[in-house]
Write a structure and sequence with these properties.
Layout: E1 5-6, E2 23-32, E3 35-45, E4 50-54, H1 61-68, E5 76-80, H2 86-89, E6 93-96, H3 110-115, H4 119-122, H5 130-142, H6 158-171, E7 176-180, H7 188-203, E8 207-211, H8 218-221, E9 224-229, E10 231-237, H9 238-241, H10 244-251, H11 255-268
Parallel strand pairs: 4-8, 4-9, 6-7, 7-8
Antiparallel strand pairs: 1-10, 2-3, 2-5, 9-10
Length: 273
């Protein structure tokens, strides 16, 4: 979508040529205990884009990622991944969950966790071999933690944990990456490593959707933006969507947030805080 789409747009406006699109969402509604969490979501994500998924707490951002990969049921609508339902194209999708949702006391090494990313290629009942182990070590090297391969995940720092799950996603060799708050509570070095990874994936023509909270870094990190608050408020090129008007509609005019928005606007336009 080159133009800004608001309020989810129209399913009829979605191009019929979905095969070229990594992610097409058509009128998706999700509810928990009969309360809508996502309502009539319509999105058409361009290939090779680095997408920021932004909105207030409880807006449905994490739920949207889970809906894409069949982790939550849809009340209505459909999701197409490269023109097919997720279950028929799951090998092309890598998902990085929120760090706090992971059981870090599970007895596994860093290498064990990364090797889990190869199961989609091997199947659950085949053991990883030398080829898979080499790929896993290469992914760990890209994330700067190959020296931690034999360490138990319970012994990792928060940043190291995040890098481990990003390495697991990398080893999947996917075409669409879904990341749920990868920047949350990480150290500065890990944040820089994640930014480099995102740019590398985009240079390889991969598509990445990132749930993100820090408005200050949105213009720097993402070239495509989805503003979500149960519904899609706006979606399109970041320069068109990252405006005070759309952000006010997304966040409901909360004073502290609007002050933050104003500062983000100044930074985007080359001003000083």
């Amino acid at each position: 979508m080159s133009n800004v789409a608001t309020n989810g747009g129209s399913a009829g406006a979605i191009s019929a040529a979905t095969n070229a699109r990594p992610l097409v969402i058509r009128e998706v509604t999700v509810a928990y205990q009969r309360k809508p969490v996502l309502l009539n979501i319509v999105l058409d994500i361009p290939a090779g884009s680095l997408v920021g998924l932004v909105g207030p707490n409880g807006a449905g951002k994490s739920t949207l990622l889970k809906a894409i990969i069949d982790m939550v049921p849809l009340i209505s609508g459909e999701v197409l991944v490269f023109g097919k339902p997720y279950r028929r194209n799951r090998a092309r999708v890598a998902y990085v969950p929120q760090r706090e949702t992971v059981d870090w006391d599970f007895p596994a090494s860093v290498l064990d966790v990364v090797l889990m990313g190869t199961y989609g290629q091997l199947g659950w009942f085949r053991r990883a071999g030398a080829k898979q182990r080499a790929a896993a070590m290469q992914a760990l090297k890209k994330m700067g933690i190959e020296h931690l391969a034999d360490r138990q995940i319970s012994q990792l720092s928060g940043g190291q944990q995040q890098r481990t799950f990003l390495a697991r996603a990398l080893v999947q060799q996917a075409d669409l990456y879904l990341m749920d708050e990868p920047f949350a509570a990480v150290d500065a070095a890990t944040e820089r490593a994640i930014v480099l990874l995102l740019r590398q994936l985009q240079s390889e023509k991969k598509t990445t959707v990132v749930v993100h909270h820090d408005l200050h870094t949105v213009p720097e990190y993402f070239d495509y933006l989805v503003l979500l608050n149960t519904r899609v408020v706006a979606a399109g090129a970041t320069q068109d969507v990252f405006t005070e008007n759309y952000l006010q509609k997304t966040y409901g005019g909360k004073l502290t947030l609007l002050e933050e928005v104003g500062e983000a606007m100044r930074l985007r336009d080359g001003g000083t805080p």
